[in-house]
Amino acid sequence: MLLVLCVDLDDDLGRKAGVETPVIGREAVEEAAVALATVDPEDSDVNVLFQGVHIANEFGEKGEAVTVAAVTGTEKADVTANRKVGEELDYVLASLSTDERISAVVVTDGAQDESVIPVIRSRVPVDGVRRVVVRQAQDLESMYYTIKQVLNDPETRGTILVPLGILLLIYPLATLADRFGFPGATLGVLSALLGLYLLGRGLGVEETVDRWAERVRTVLYTGRVTLITSVVAAALLLIGGIGGVEALEAAQVGEQLTALEVIAALVYGAVQWFAAAGITSSLGRITDAYLADRLEWRYLNAPFYVVSIAVVLHGVSAFLLGYQELPYVAAALTAGTLVGLVSTLTFAIVETRSARRAEPT
Length: 361
Hints:
Elements: E1 2-8, H1 12-17, E2 23-24, H2 26-39, H3 44-61, E3 66-72, H4 79-95, E4 103-108, H5 111-114, H6 117-121, E5 126-131, H7 140-152, H8 154-168, H9 170-179, H10 185-203, H11 205-222, H12 225-252, H13 259-291, H14 301-320, H15 326-358
Parallel strand pairs: 1-3, 1-4, 4-5
Antiparallel strand pairs: 2-3
Helix pairs in contact: 2-3, 8-10, 9-10, 12-13, 13-14, 14-15
Protein backbone atom coordinates (compact mmCIF):
# COMPACT_ATOMS: atom_id res chain seq x y z
CA MET A 1 0.00 0.00 0.00
CA LEU A 2 1.17 3.51 -0.82
CA LEU A 3 0.68 6.30 1.72
CA VAL A 4 0.68 9.80 0.25
CA LEU A 5 1.68 11.91 3.22
CA CYS A 6 1.12 15.68 3.15
CA VAL A 7 3.29 17.50 5.69
CA ASP A 8 2.31 20.83 7.26
CA LEU A 9 5.13 21.37 9.75
CA ASP A 10 3.94 24.75 11.09
CA ASP A 11 0.33 23.55 11.60
CA ASP A 12 -1.46 25.98 9.30
CA LEU A 13 -4.36 23.53 9.12
CA GLY A 14 -4.97 23.67 12.83
CA ARG A 15 -4.07 27.30 13.50
CA LYS A 16 -5.84 28.89 10.55
CA ALA A 17 -8.60 26.49 9.50
CA GLY A 18 -9.24 24.76 12.83
CA VAL A 19 -8.92 21.31 11.25
CA GLU A 20 -8.17 18.45 13.62
CA THR A 21 -5.20 16.36 12.55
CA PRO A 22 -4.15 13.91 11.37
CA VAL A 23 -6.48 13.98 8.36
CA ILE A 24 -6.91 10.56 6.74
CA GLY A 25 -8.64 9.77 3.45
CA ARG A 26 -9.10 11.46 0.09
CA GLU A 27 -12.37 13.20 0.93
CA ALA A 28 -11.17 14.36 4.34
CA VAL A 29 -7.98 15.83 2.84
CA GLU A 30 -9.98 17.59 0.11
CA GLU A 31 -12.26 19.12 2.74
CA ALA A 32 -9.27 20.23 4.79
CA ALA A 33 -7.69 21.82 1.69
CA VAL A 34 -10.90 23.70 0.89
CA ALA A 35 -11.20 24.87 4.50
CA LEU A 36 -7.61 26.19 4.50
CA ALA A 37 -8.03 27.80 1.07
CA THR A 38 -11.18 29.54 2.26
CA VAL A 39 -9.34 31.04 5.23
CA ASP A 40 -6.03 31.80 3.48
CA PRO A 41 -5.97 31.27 -0.30
CA GLU A 42 -2.30 32.27 -0.50
CA ASP A 43 -1.09 29.56 1.91
CA SER A 44 1.24 27.16 0.11
CA ASP A 45 -0.04 24.22 2.18
CA VAL A 46 -3.26 24.38 0.14
CA ASN A 47 -1.22 23.31 -2.89
CA VAL A 48 0.38 20.52 -0.84
CA LEU A 49 -2.99 19.04 0.09
CA PHE A 50 -4.37 19.19 -3.44
CA GLN A 51 -1.12 17.76 -4.79
CA GLY A 52 -1.44 14.87 -2.34
CA VAL A 53 -4.95 14.15 -3.60
CA HIS A 54 -3.70 14.38 -7.20
CA ILE A 55 -0.88 11.87 -6.58
CA ALA A 56 -3.33 9.53 -4.82
CA ASN A 57 -5.66 9.69 -7.84
CA GLU A 58 -2.80 8.91 -10.22
CA PHE A 59 -1.74 5.77 -8.36
CA GLY A 60 -5.36 4.78 -7.74
CA GLU A 61 -6.08 4.83 -11.48
CA LYS A 62 -3.19 2.38 -11.94
CA GLY A 63 -4.90 -0.09 -9.63
CA GLU A 64 -2.55 0.40 -6.67
CA ALA A 65 -3.90 0.57 -3.14
CA VAL A 66 -3.29 4.13 -1.98
CA THR A 67 -4.25 6.31 0.97
CA VAL A 68 -3.69 10.03 1.38
CA ALA A 69 -3.21 11.67 4.78
CA ALA A 70 -2.11 15.01 6.19
CA VAL A 71 -0.04 15.47 9.35
CA THR A 72 0.96 18.68 11.10
CA GLY A 73 3.56 19.93 13.56
CA THR A 74 3.52 23.05 15.71
CA GLU A 75 3.69 26.76 15.01
CA LYS A 76 7.41 27.09 15.85
CA ALA A 77 8.39 24.30 13.41
CA ASP A 78 11.15 23.04 15.68
CA VAL A 79 11.99 19.73 17.37
CA THR A 80 8.59 19.72 19.07
CA ALA A 81 6.96 19.99 15.66
CA ASN A 82 8.97 17.01 14.38
CA ARG A 83 7.86 14.95 17.37
CA LYS A 84 4.22 15.85 16.79
CA VAL A 85 4.51 14.81 13.14
CA GLY A 86 5.95 11.49 14.28
CA GLU A 87 3.09 10.95 16.73
CA GLU A 88 0.45 11.74 14.10
CA LEU A 89 2.17 9.46 11.59
CA ASP A 90 2.09 6.64 14.15
CA TYR A 91 -1.66 7.21 14.45
CA VAL A 92 -2.10 7.13 10.67
CA LEU A 93 -0.13 3.89 10.31
CA ALA A 94 -2.09 2.27 13.14
CA SER A 95 -5.38 3.18 11.43
CA LEU A 96 -4.41 1.48 8.15
CA SER A 97 -5.88 -2.01 8.39
CA THR A 98 -3.78 -3.86 5.83
CA ASP A 99 -1.29 -6.68 5.71
CA GLU A 100 0.53 -5.18 2.72
CA ARG A 101 3.89 -3.47 2.96
CA ILE A 102 3.35 0.26 3.43
CA SER A 103 5.60 2.84 1.77
CA ALA A 104 5.19 6.59 1.60
CA VAL A 105 5.47 9.49 -0.81
CA VAL A 106 6.02 12.71 1.12
CA VAL A 107 4.53 15.93 -0.22
CA THR A 108 5.87 19.25 1.11
CA ASP A 109 5.98 22.91 0.15
CA GLY A 110 9.70 23.55 0.75
CA ALA A 111 12.94 22.80 2.53
CA GLN A 112 11.58 23.62 5.98
CA ASP A 113 8.94 20.88 5.91
CA GLU A 114 11.47 18.44 4.45
CA SER A 115 13.51 18.66 7.66
CA VAL A 116 11.03 16.18 9.17
CA ILE A 117 11.77 13.46 6.59
CA PRO A 118 14.23 11.59 8.91
CA VAL A 119 11.38 11.26 11.43
CA ILE A 120 9.14 9.82 8.72
CA ARG A 121 11.85 7.44 7.46
CA SER A 122 12.21 6.03 10.97
CA ARG A 123 8.59 4.82 10.80
CA VAL A 124 7.89 3.96 7.18
CA PRO A 125 9.98 3.53 3.98
CA VAL A 126 9.91 6.69 1.84
CA ASP A 127 9.71 6.06 -1.93
CA GLY A 128 9.96 9.69 -2.87
CA VAL A 129 9.55 13.34 -1.93
CA ARG A 130 7.44 15.75 -3.96
CA ARG A 131 7.99 19.45 -3.34
CA VAL A 132 5.14 21.74 -4.35
CA VAL A 133 5.93 25.41 -4.88
CA VAL A 134 4.44 28.29 -6.85
CA ARG A 135 6.04 28.37 -10.31
CA GLN A 136 6.70 32.08 -10.19
CA ALA A 137 8.83 31.68 -7.03
CA GLN A 138 10.20 28.14 -6.97
CA ASP A 139 13.27 28.88 -4.83
CA LEU A 140 11.84 31.70 -2.73
CA GLU A 141 10.88 29.62 0.32
CA SER A 142 14.08 27.57 0.18
CA MET A 143 16.11 30.78 0.08
CA TYR A 144 14.13 32.21 2.98
CA TYR A 145 14.55 29.02 5.00
CA THR A 146 18.32 28.94 4.33
CA ILE A 147 18.75 32.57 5.38
CA LYS A 148 16.65 31.94 8.47
CA GLN A 149 18.78 28.94 9.44
CA VAL A 150 21.97 30.98 8.98
CA LEU A 151 20.70 33.81 11.16
CA ASN A 152 19.52 31.39 13.87
CA ASP A 153 22.88 29.62 14.10
CA PRO A 154 25.11 31.49 16.63
CA GLU A 155 28.31 30.14 15.07
CA THR A 156 27.41 31.17 11.52
CA ARG A 157 25.87 34.42 12.68
CA GLY A 158 29.05 35.46 14.44
CA THR A 159 31.25 34.43 11.54
CA ILE A 160 29.30 36.26 8.82
CA LEU A 161 27.41 39.14 10.38
CA VAL A 162 30.13 40.60 12.63
CA PRO A 163 32.72 41.15 9.84
CA LEU A 164 29.94 42.36 7.53
CA GLY A 165 28.78 44.83 10.18
CA ILE A 166 32.32 46.13 10.67
CA LEU A 167 32.70 46.66 6.92
CA LEU A 168 29.36 48.48 6.72
CA LEU A 169 30.57 50.89 9.41
CA ILE A 170 33.37 52.16 7.16
CA TYR A 171 31.34 54.80 5.34
CA PRO A 172 29.51 56.41 8.31
CA LEU A 173 32.64 56.42 10.46
CA ALA A 174 34.74 57.79 7.59
CA THR A 175 32.22 60.61 7.18
CA LEU A 176 32.35 61.46 10.88
CA ALA A 177 36.15 61.23 10.99
CA ASP A 178 36.46 63.52 7.97
CA ARG A 179 34.15 66.07 9.60
CA PHE A 180 36.22 66.11 12.79
CA GLY A 181 39.52 66.24 10.93
CA PHE A 182 40.69 62.61 11.34
CA PRO A 183 40.43 61.23 7.79
CA GLY A 184 42.86 58.35 8.28
CA ALA A 185 41.62 57.13 11.66
CA THR A 186 38.56 55.25 10.41
CA LEU A 187 40.29 52.69 8.23
CA GLY A 188 42.90 52.11 10.90
CA VAL A 189 40.37 51.53 13.68
CA LEU A 190 38.07 49.33 11.59
CA SER A 191 40.95 47.32 10.18
CA ALA A 192 42.23 46.78 13.74
CA LEU A 193 38.77 45.66 14.88
CA LEU A 194 38.37 43.30 11.94
CA GLY A 195 41.87 41.94 12.42
CA LEU A 196 41.35 41.37 16.14
CA TYR A 197 38.03 39.67 15.48
CA LEU A 198 39.43 37.33 12.84
CA LEU A 199 42.47 36.60 15.00
CA GLY A 200 40.23 35.84 17.95
CA ARG A 201 38.05 33.52 15.87
CA GLY A 202 41.10 31.76 14.51
CA LEU A 203 42.66 31.23 17.93
CA GLY A 204 39.39 30.33 19.63
CA VAL A 205 39.57 33.26 22.05
CA GLU A 206 35.78 33.46 22.28
CA GLU A 207 35.68 30.05 23.97
CA THR A 208 38.11 31.24 26.63
CA VAL A 209 36.12 34.44 27.13
CA ASP A 210 32.90 32.44 27.47
CA ARG A 211 34.53 30.15 30.03
CA TRP A 212 35.76 33.08 32.12
CA ALA A 213 32.39 34.82 31.87
CA GLU A 214 30.65 31.66 33.08
CA ARG A 215 33.16 31.35 35.92
CA VAL A 216 32.64 34.97 36.99
CA ARG A 217 28.86 34.51 36.82
CA THR A 218 29.12 31.41 39.01
CA VAL A 219 31.29 33.26 41.52
CA LEU A 220 28.82 36.15 41.68
CA TYR A 221 25.82 33.90 42.24
CA THR A 222 27.50 31.68 44.84
CA GLY A 223 28.84 34.61 46.89
CA ARG A 224 32.49 33.58 46.99
CA VAL A 225 35.03 35.68 48.86
CA THR A 226 37.50 34.92 46.08
CA LEU A 227 35.81 37.53 43.88
CA ILE A 228 36.60 40.37 46.31
CA THR A 229 40.11 39.19 47.10
CA SER A 230 40.88 38.73 43.40
CA VAL A 231 39.89 42.33 42.67
CA VAL A 232 42.02 43.56 45.57
CA ALA A 233 44.92 41.35 44.45
CA ALA A 234 44.67 42.73 40.90
CA ALA A 235 44.84 46.29 42.27
CA LEU A 236 47.88 45.37 44.37
CA LEU A 237 49.58 43.83 41.33
CA LEU A 238 48.97 47.04 39.38
CA ILE A 239 50.44 49.11 42.21
CA GLY A 240 53.38 46.70 42.39
CA GLY A 241 54.05 47.13 38.69
CA ILE A 242 54.10 50.90 39.10
CA GLY A 243 56.38 50.54 42.12
CA GLY A 244 58.77 48.39 40.13
CA VAL A 245 58.98 50.95 37.36
CA GLU A 246 59.61 53.74 39.88
CA ALA A 247 62.35 51.68 41.54
CA LEU A 248 63.94 51.11 38.13
CA GLU A 249 63.88 54.82 37.33
CA ALA A 250 65.45 55.64 40.70
CA ALA A 251 68.19 53.04 40.18
CA GLN A 252 69.01 54.33 36.68
CA VAL A 253 69.76 57.88 37.86
CA GLY A 254 73.41 58.61 37.10
CA GLU A 255 74.45 55.08 36.05
CA GLN A 256 73.90 52.45 33.36
CA LEU A 257 72.32 49.21 34.63
CA THR A 258 72.93 45.72 33.35
CA ALA A 259 70.06 43.42 32.39
CA LEU A 260 70.31 41.60 35.73
CA GLU A 261 70.21 44.88 37.63
CA VAL A 262 67.17 46.03 35.66
CA ILE A 263 65.33 42.85 36.69
CA ALA A 264 66.53 43.29 40.29
CA ALA A 265 65.22 46.89 40.38
CA LEU A 266 61.81 45.84 39.07
CA VAL A 267 61.62 43.03 41.62
CA TYR A 268 62.81 45.25 44.48
CA GLY A 269 60.10 47.84 43.84
CA ALA A 270 57.26 45.40 43.24
CA VAL A 271 57.93 42.42 45.50
CA GLN A 272 56.17 43.72 48.62
CA TRP A 273 53.03 44.60 46.63
CA PHE A 274 53.07 41.29 44.78
CA ALA A 275 53.45 39.50 48.12
CA ALA A 276 50.44 41.39 49.49
CA ALA A 277 48.45 40.38 46.41
CA GLY A 278 49.44 36.74 46.83
CA ILE A 279 48.53 36.71 50.52
CA THR A 280 45.17 38.38 49.83
CA SER A 281 44.30 35.95 47.06
CA SER A 282 45.33 32.88 49.07
CA LEU A 283 43.32 34.03 52.09
CA GLY A 284 40.25 34.37 49.87
CA ARG A 285 40.66 30.85 48.55
CA ILE A 286 41.20 29.50 52.08
CA THR A 287 38.02 31.23 53.24
CA ASP A 288 35.99 29.80 50.35
CA ALA A 289 37.38 26.33 51.02
CA TYR A 290 36.39 26.63 54.68
CA LEU A 291 32.87 27.83 53.84
CA ALA A 292 32.48 24.94 51.38
CA ASP A 293 33.73 22.49 54.04
CA ARG A 294 36.68 21.55 51.82
CA LEU A 295 39.45 23.12 53.90
CA GLU A 296 42.57 21.06 54.53
CA TRP A 297 45.37 22.12 56.84
CA ARG A 298 48.00 22.18 54.09
CA TYR A 299 46.04 24.92 52.31
CA LEU A 300 47.19 27.28 55.09
CA ASN A 301 50.77 26.98 53.81
CA ALA A 302 50.02 29.29 50.87
CA PRO A 303 50.34 32.68 52.67
CA PHE A 304 53.54 31.54 54.40
CA TYR A 305 55.04 30.37 51.11
CA VAL A 306 54.27 33.77 49.58
CA VAL A 307 55.99 35.55 52.48
CA SER A 308 58.97 33.19 52.24
CA ILE A 309 59.45 33.80 48.50
CA ALA A 310 58.99 37.58 48.93
CA VAL A 311 61.66 37.75 51.67
CA VAL A 312 64.16 35.83 49.51
CA LEU A 313 63.50 37.94 46.40
CA HIS A 314 63.71 41.19 48.37
CA GLY A 315 67.05 40.21 49.89
CA VAL A 316 68.61 39.09 46.60
CA SER A 317 67.37 42.13 44.63
CA ALA A 318 68.56 44.55 47.32
CA PHE A 319 72.01 42.95 47.26
CA LEU A 320 72.26 43.10 43.45
CA LEU A 321 71.39 46.80 43.49
CA GLY A 322 73.96 47.50 46.22
CA TYR A 323 71.36 48.55 48.80
CA GLN A 324 72.31 45.83 51.29
CA GLU A 325 75.38 43.83 52.21
CA LEU A 326 75.93 40.09 52.03
CA PRO A 327 74.88 39.40 55.69
CA TYR A 328 71.42 40.79 54.89
CA VAL A 329 71.08 38.38 51.96
CA ALA A 330 72.10 35.47 54.15
CA ALA A 331 69.58 36.47 56.79
CA ALA A 332 66.82 36.84 54.17
CA LEU A 333 67.55 33.44 52.65
CA THR A 334 67.62 31.82 56.07
CA ALA A 335 64.42 33.51 57.21
CA GLY A 336 62.56 32.63 54.01
CA THR A 337 63.65 29.00 54.17
CA LEU A 338 62.73 28.67 57.84
CA VAL A 339 59.28 30.22 57.32
CA GLY A 340 58.51 27.73 54.55
CA LEU A 341 59.85 24.70 56.43
CA VAL A 342 58.21 25.55 59.75
CA SER A 343 54.80 26.17 58.17
CA THR A 344 55.00 22.94 56.15
CA LEU A 345 55.98 20.81 59.14
CA THR A 346 53.48 22.47 61.46
CA PHE A 347 50.44 22.01 59.26
CA ALA A 348 51.51 18.52 58.22
CA ILE A 349 51.69 17.45 61.88
CA VAL A 350 48.34 19.09 62.68
CA GLU A 351 46.69 17.44 59.66
CA THR A 352 48.08 14.02 60.60
CA ARG A 353 46.85 14.26 64.19
CA SER A 354 43.45 15.51 63.09
CA ALA A 355 43.13 12.54 60.73
CA ARG A 356 44.03 10.13 63.50
CA ARG A 357 41.44 11.62 65.83
CA ALA A 358 38.80 11.35 63.13
CA GLU A 359 39.47 7.64 62.58
CA PRO A 360 36.88 5.37 64.25
CA THR A 361 38.22 3.33 67.14
